[in-house]
């Protein structure tokens, strides 16, 4: 007769159900019943008793708890038949398959991977609690995508051999769109002005891409903070957001957002004082103060002031300085005075600089960019400069800096630079289009961090309707420890501008190689030198201009156009203080570049280029760019400037609205552009965000004014020869490459000018 000792109900696990007492006995045999997939040995491993040992009530409870904890069984029972211990189990089913029906918003394989991470996957034990969690998480993901009407129905289908199939049936519904954003209580600023601060917006012509018409709690929080900052930066010290309401229509398709604010009064700054342990002369602190007495209060300027003071103290070695502003508000006069308390703390120096995360890149590649030295006083400016220089290498996705205090000391810190490496090898196949070059094909293989050394090697092919280039280049940015760079280039180039440009017909096939080196003379300044040998075959045609034919006439010169060999020396200087290479808003860029052909080469000429570009920021989203580009070339030693070295103007890169390279001297017969030996280009461009994109900097629009012209040798440079144009431009850093459009309206032109009002370029044209 079998005596039931314990049941495997869940209540038994917590010893709340009564059990039948029994006398301890010696186990002569153990038998497991009810298993289908689980090995008997697995059950034996969770039993606290072996054959020949004494079995007690406490061990029975322990065995049941252990077997339940595996998650393999729905029910566990222990029975005794004489001196035989019988373990009866009811296994949980295994998951045979997981299917998704109606899912379009997410990749099904990605969903399965996510379920696998939480324990819900094919061949694993089925747990209904995990299924419920997965269903709720999937629902949350749809809510994050703005699909509030999504309905998820899960079905568990029993299958043979104690298995189940899971089916997620999804009705995604439509994306809920923001139909209205309302600001209540604003009087100082118009609705359009404050709503323009919001990234969230109602549906527009570009919101299909930005998704800014879909509600996001995080985006709304950021928008409210932008709203708060906008008021606080304009003197409204008592500004407050009273309430925020987000409502959705019953059909879950439309969202309405209402924000209630209290503006308060506008305050001016009556005084700015500095107190505490100043260390530096008070006059120096006053120079750092961005907020001045008599001005409208601005939280941004106040924060800028405290940060500038802390940074200045950091440059003196006070790494942990505390700078806090205490306001004194006079509500009757609507004035506020600030006392800025300075506590520099203890001066510290850097014990050790550590580099981490560089599994491929050698330590020396990172360390040679350091401006903070070990054993020197802590200098915040030098540490930030070091981080910027490491980031500019392009070898790392992220560069972070930590300055922990050294344990057991009060005047030492370590500086830890942590980097996250990025792939630096590229295999690129690209296609571009432009209104001047038509189809542009490109391919390149490059490694910008060769064997972790920081050296760069590139093999490139670029071809368009008018040119084809093969190039191989190598650069060692630190040929010497003090930053002297050394590189070489080899190329083969075919150029036939008459195929697609408004240029007089000729053709050149050039092959060459050269050495170049550069040297930094300051943090933002560098000089460079180069020397190259070039061999060019020049082909003219019957319809070529007479001056081209004269240049290649052996009776008029002592070299043969079938093989023109030249030795070209180059030198240049550049300074770049822009805040970004891709999306600049402030700073300047200057470049001077000279090219000189020297004996024993057949050519005798020189060319000079000067470019100056300055960016002026307006607010956080607008910028004005002024650009000047000057060029001058001339032959010497009784030889002319080679015609294929002429300057050209016109097109999307210079004076928009005019056809590419069409401005300047023309052939009197064919009216094709000849180019010239002098060029002047000027551009004024005001950049602003594309409406509907918020602060997405990859989209930019601009209003431009271009001016420029080219003069041939012997012609007098006259302002009357300049061409002018104005218009609108659009640029987008798209996933397939930079995209540029411009619509230019010529303001001053000549009858022989060729116009092209609409111009575009997709991809980088070389």
UniProtKB/TrEMBL annotation:
Instruction: Tell me which domain of life the UniProt entry assigns to the organism this sequence originates from.
Output: Bacteria
Q: Where is the signal peptide?
A: 1-21
User: What species does this protein belong to?
Assistant: Aromatoleum aromaticum (strain DSM 19018 / LMG 30748 / EbN1) (Azoarcus sp. (strain EbN1))
Taxonomic lineage of the native organism: Bacteria, Pseudomonadati, Pseudomonadota, Betaproteobacteria, Rhodocyclales
Name the UniProt record assigns to this protein: Outer membrane protein assembly factor BamA
Gene designation: bamA
Question: What is the stated purpose of this protein?
Answer: Part of the outer membrane protein assembly complex, which is involved in assembly and insertion of beta-barrel proteins into the outer membrane.
Compartment(s) where it occurs, according to its Swiss-Prot or TrEMBL record: Cell outer membrane; Membrane
Q: Does the keyword Isomerase apply?
A: no
Cite the entry's keywords alphabetically: Cell outer membrane, Membrane, Repeat, Signal, Transmembrane, Transmembrane beta strand
- Which family does the similarity line name? Belongs to the BamA family.
